[in-house]
Amino acid sequence: MLILTGLFWSSSALSHPYHYINVRMSWPEAQSYCRERFTDLATVYSMDDVNRLVNIVDAGYSGSVWIGLKRGTLKRWGWSNGENTTSQYYNWASGQPNGDEDCVSTYAGVWHDMLCSNKRYFVCYENSGYILIQSTKNWTDAQSYCRQNYTDLPTIHNSEQNNQINKILLSENYIWIGLFLDSWERSDKWSLFFRHWAAGQPSMSSGSGDCVGMSTADSGKWFQHRCDLQHPFICHGGEFNI
Ligand SMILES: *[C@@H]1O[C@H](CO)[C@@H](O)[C@H](O)[C@H]1NC(C)=O
Ligand SMILES: *[C@@H]1O[C@H](CO)[C@@H](O)[C@H](O)[C@H]1NC(C)=O
Ligand SMILES: *[C@@H]1O[C@H](CO)[C@@H](O)[C@H](O)[C@H]1NC(C)=O
């Protein structure tokens, strides 16, 4: 499964070349420009893509660059590593999810939604399996920790994986997993959930900006901005009409 996923990511990266457009436009104008000449504003599947994006921006530019993500009208559950919830496996505790809380922890193998700002132990994964990190962090800091030191927070596709994780958990603890409630949608409407937010982003309050820019000054992390601001941008896809 992990190997297949790897192949999918790398082949999608090859078929999605990025193009840096060094002209300042609003997000909707940039989207139209990309759709006319390429496929769409840049979509980002993985940390490899984040690094590719950072590398194609002109070295002298240190501001924001539009990518293909904006606030959507619906909230959906997604996984930190970018997978959508096609497998439809959830193992909620009874009565869960129960509120406006956007991040998910597991307690004795059943899942609870809770405030992302809570500090919890968490699980990371890499090829060799799952690792319990006994240091308390909020969900976003836990995600950064896993991405830097392992691969990501874990995706749980089925009861077998849920049981594997449950085996390494400590009793009496809520522990973060990779599931979160996402209210952002990609320009091309595909439903992959990879996100690379800067600390404190996105803000829970609306009105703080509905379009997403990548900051070249903050190693490619994402910030929300007003959609009418003018920034350079990145398109992806084959070149048409050129
Ligand atoms: C997580 O903690 C960091 C500081 O370590 C803070 O900047 C960030 O806003 C926090 N995120 C949430 C969702 O509370
Ligand atoms: C990666 O692990 C090291 C050692 O535990 C830690 O100091 C560092 O902060 C971790 N990275 C992140 C992004 O949390
Ligand atoms: C999930 O992603 C797959 C491709 O990776 C896509 O075919 C499917 O439609 C997506 N499912 C949802 C619910 O968006």
From TrEMBL:
Domain C-type lectin as annotated: residue spans: 18-125, 125-236
SMART domains in UniProt: CLECT (SM00034)
Transmembrane domains' residue ranges: none
InterPro entries associated with the record: C-type_lectin-like, C-type_lectin-like/link_sf, CTDL_fold
PROSITE patterns (UniProt xref): C_TYPE_LECTIN_2
Signal peptide: 1-15
Superkingdom of origin organism: Eukaryota
Keywords, ordered alphabetically: Signal
Keyword Membrane included in the entry's annotation: no
One of the Pfam families matching this protein, by short name: Lectin_C
Protein name: Si:dkeyp-94g1.1
Organism field: Cyprinus carpio carpio
